[in-house]
Amino acid sequence: MAEEKRRFREDAKTSEYLDIENYSLIKELGEGNFGKVVLASFKIKNQLTAIKIIEKQREEDFEYVRREASVLQIASRCPFLCRAMATFQTKSLILLALEYVNGGTLENIIEDRGRLSNKQVLFYASELVVGIQFLHENGIVHRDLKPENILVDEQGHVKIGDFGLVCTGMYGANTQCGYYGTPGYTAPQVLLEEPYDAGADWWSFGVILYEMATNRLPFSPKGNLRQQVESVINREPEYPDSLSTKLRDLIKQLLKKKANQRLGVNGNIRDHPFFSTVDWSNVEKRTLKPPIKPSHESATGFNRKYISFPKEDPSETRMLKGFDYVDPSWLE
Ligand code: AMP
């Protein structure tokens, strides 16, 4: 009887998180591939969350959203990935309530600071390696790694976000085809629409390291697809003298044009000399001290504007099966 009561209380709590009426929207945080991200409050507990609001328009997008939701759920097992607090839907909206990460993005840090020091690059690179390896161990290739998708929490630790373009089930020799990603960050195999695997993410990681250390991109993102292919396939990036020998070598190993020679797929990146001073168990425990403390807005300081959820379309009947989820930590 006591067990039944407990389960009843838990179910009631869970359904509160799955009810759009219990969220009030505060301000827009950004816009992604599939919808707006809005800061919201879960009114019952006054908890902040970043809600991704996706209108059920194109049925082709449902599969991407399902994949994004599944990764957001697995993400609760790795501290360097942004996770879902809840995923649910109404008649015409799909809602991903994400943990609110309020220190901006790595893109903001590079914009504010310009070139980062070797020590700063080492910190971000180490946390990113743990996050990327966790994704790959779970058969997930991100396909859109770039500073804009790397959020920073209020202490300064990284959280990889935006799983809207992931591919899943990438175990063993499985490969994918198809162009995804962002100009400037995309691996040659992806640009050429050749089969690719997790090596595509390690290429993007190499680009991110180069950008952190130089405040430039190694390959031009300009022009059409053919011009980008030309730049990525035929050119070698310029490595300024300010780069340390170890970091330069690491980037070169990651920007190998042949995917099977690329570090990350060919050898464990943790063993590269650039990381020789890193105690990986400390990185995994999230005990490294962030070198930059982000300046962030306080949750109470927002200028609350009235924003509302998009209007429901009563004629919409498409529901995603088995989509409702609440992270157990929210129920505590
Ligand atoms: P996305 O579609 O995931 O790329 O999100 C679009 C933008 O919304 C990002 O560039 C961030 O500025 C913001 N954003 C996304 N997720 C979060 C989050 N969990 N916390 C705070 N801001 C976020």
From TrEMBL:
Q: List residues of the AGC-kinase C-terminal domain.
A: 276-332
Q: State the UniProt keywords alphabetically.
A: ATP-binding, Kinase, Nucleotide-binding, Phosphoprotein, Serine/threonine-protein kinase, Transferase
Superkingdom in the source lineage: Eukaryota
The name this protein goes by in its record: Protein kinase C delta type-like
Query: What protein family is recorded?
Result: Belongs to the protein kinase superfamily.
Instruction: Identify the InterPro entries for this entry.
Output: AGC-kinase_C, Kinase-like_dom_sf, Prot_kinase_dom, Protein_kinase_ATP_BS, Ser/Thr_kinase_AS
Look up the coiled coil feature and give its residue ranges.
none
**Is Metal-binding given among the entry's keywords?**
no
Gene name for this UniProt entry: LOC121394501
What GO molecular-function term can you cite, just one?
protein serine/threonine kinase activity
- Signal sequence range: none
The record's SUPFAM superfamilies line, in alphabetical order, gives: Protein kinase-like (PK-like)
